[in-house]
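QA checklist item 7 of 12: single-chain prediction sanity check.
[x] sequence parsed
[x] length recorded as 334
[x] structure emitted
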Amino acid sequence: MKFPLASTVSIGKYVAAQQRKGERYPLVLMLEPTLACNIACIGCGKIREYESNRARLSVEECVDAAVQCPAPVVSICGGEPLVYKGIDEVVPQVLELGKTIELCTNALRLEQCLDWFEPSNRLSFVIHLDGMREIHDYVCDYPGLWDIAIDAIKTARACGFRVTTNTTIFKETEVGDVVEMMRYLTDDVGIDGMMIAPGYQYSQIDPALTMTRDEHEEKFRVIRQATREHGYRWIASPIYQDFLTGKRDLTCAPWGSITRNPYGWKGPCYLLTDGIFPTYEALLEGMEWEAYGPGNDPRCEHCGIHCGFEPSAAYEASSSLKETVRSLAWTLTG
């Protein structure tokens, strides 16, 4: 299976229950306990948007965010979560709420922090890896980080943790390097899964780094073909893969991934900050959601980020018996 059975069943029940209500609902809470990071990747808009900010959430605020937002998945991101003092308290308390956690990290401190956590089928470490050694170290502006990350992945898996990777494709990314990374992680490391998505445009980064829709479709057709031929564990849903490769269109669902950071509840999405609200309910009621997405807001025109379009794919799959069966078959295969 591409995902642990317990998480798959839990998320499926949640989606079915929410669908019956006929209202907007999130699938993922993007929880940013800190905006501080111990590296400065060249394509990261977060460190530029908040570069002078030292604000952080308390442990109680982190857990309260998971209580307020009904999303079954909590992506703990930032910033770098492993520099946040209190992450060892946040993770078990959020797991006790029945949530599935994806803890996103550059892995610089992962090996030293593994003793803080217990392996669980509802906890995954998601390691930032943007290519093989030369490319990844360049993107992260940190020589030697690729080797540190690979060693951390192997150690974490040996300790019984589920480990996946997260890769961002930019305009200058050599797709052959990404395919080689997929082969290496599958054959030599035995990774549990790989998330790969096109780079997204923050106002704070060089627009020359990011791709148009046509450019990312061309690269993702190569990635999809390699996945089909070699069985690489690319954990993008079938509908999202169709979207990334230009086989179908999707509307963005910015409410599908709700962001909570030290400023408050951020809208409309992980990338754009047009409003900050004191509560989850205030965010849902306070944003004009229909104003966003390709065709509505020029900032969204070439975006293909997971947090906007994977929820759209999930909503579309759940509304069609054919797509539900297709998605379930994909999930149950290795």
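[x] summary fact logged: The mean pLDDT is 89.
[ ] second reviewer sign-off
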